Amino acid sequence: MKRNNEKKLTIVIGSSRLGANIASYNSQNGVYTVIIDKNPLAFRKLDSSFSGYQIEGDAENLDILNAANIKEATEVDVLTNSDNTNIFIANVVLKYYKVPLVLVRLMDTTKSVFLDDPRIRIISPAILSFRSYKEIITEKEL
Amino acid sequence: MKIIICGNYSQVSFVIRSFTAEESNKIIVICDSEKDAAALSKIDNITVFNSDPTKIYSYEISDVYDFDLIVSLLDNDANNFIACTIAKKLFNVKKSICTVNNPNNVNIFRDLGIDSPISAPYLLSEKIKGESDINSLIKTMSLENSRIVITEIRVKKDFFCANKQLKNISLPNTGNITCIFRDPSVLIPRGDTSIIPGDLLIIASAPNDQKDLVQYIRKGRK
């Protein structure tokens, strides 16, 4: 089902492989997308079709989040390679902004207790990988 | 007091001096560098765990439930936030103090439940504000995360309060003269205590009232 992407603003924090793919996907689907990373070289992972904004800076800084127009954001995806950074940024976003959906990448799922809010959705590479493993094994056995 | 300290050798070995003097303190150090943990374990009266202070299991193995204080001195702000949050939320540690590298994060940390975030540039800027707001004969210090300020002011002969009894000064009720230093004595002020030039007044107030109180001590009502 095609999403209605008018007036959507997604902010992606961390231009990791996952972050760059999500930002590229949203941009291709007509979602206004801003991607933030401390390292400008990380933006090379974006698809050539990406037409959103790139902001070089530390998303732990409110000035950077404001520069990304976070007050208007409909979705913030916190996807840096550090769980601790992701939890901190997600807590800042929840505390100061009324963003309706905050996705957080978390390797160590025991730390999900620090993200206890209905606006939070956790993406866990460990759980997703394990799910894939089970699917592969099940297919093989059939 | 039962205290957890997180950090590497240079920071922890310096800070720990404040706590080891009191023998009844129980001190647990969590340090993720094996080399630093080995060096720290040579210090008397502390227990050192070589583990990652941003992992929940580090607090489980060091058995710090219900401790009084966590002091987190890690290099990264997010790591300090996580260490303090694990200790407070999951292990019921009563108070958290941590260093903050980005001074803009001081107020954010407070809003997120860290009791005392400390940033050198932030403290420096508060100190400069304290020095420049009023004038050089006044010294200030802050308590309880800057919610209380203690102001020292040396009385000059042209001050409004000079040679008056406290009860006749009608000091605004936004602050109080808590102590008077009249070399070599320390006086606890009462209504009939007179203030004389050369006295050092120690005044406690909220930060927003400090300027008006000092103005009143010097010049009376506007």
Explain how this protein is built.
The complex is a heterodimer of chains A (142) and B (222). Chain A is an alpha/beta fold and 142 residues long. Chain A has one domain (9-141): Rossmann fold. Chain A is 35% helix and 19% strand. A six-stranded parallel beta sheet of chain A has the order 3-2-1-4-5-6, sandwiched between helices. In chain A, β1 (9-13), α1 and β2 form a beta-alpha-beta unit. The mean pLDDT of chain A is 93. In chain B, 32% of the residues are buried. By secondary structure, chain B is α/β, with parallel strands linked by helices. Chain B has helices at 9-15, 17-20, 34-40, 56-61, 77-91, 105-111, 120-133, 210-219, and strands spanning 2-6, 26-31, 46-50, 69-72, 95-99, 116-118, 138-143, 148-154, 164-165, 175-182, 185-187, 194-195, 200-205. The chains are: A alpha/beta (142), B alpha/beta (222). The interface between A and B is medium-sized, with 20 and 18 residues.
Classification by helices and strands of chain B = alpha/beta
Number of strands of chain A: 6
Low-confidence stretches of chain B: none
Gyration radius from CA atoms of chain B, angstroms: 22 Å
Q: Tally the helices of chain A.
A: 4
H and E order of chain A:
EHEEHEHEEH
Main beta sheet of chain B: strand number and arrangement?
6 strands, parallel
How much of the sequence lies in strands of chain A comes to 15-25%
Largest sheet, spatial ordering of strands of chain B: 3-2-1-4-5-6
What is the molecular shape of chain B? elongated
Largest interface: A-B, 20 and 18 residues
Q: Per CATH, what is the topology of chain A? A: Rossmann fold
What's the overall geometry of chain A?
globular
Assign the CATH class of the largest domain in chain B.
Alpha Beta
Major sheet characteristics of chain A: 6 strands, parallel
In CATH, the homologous superfamily of chain A goes by the name NAD(P)-binding Rossmann-like Domain
Task: Please count the helical segments of chain B.
Answer: 8
Q: Nearest-angstrom radius of gyration of chain A?
A: 16 Å
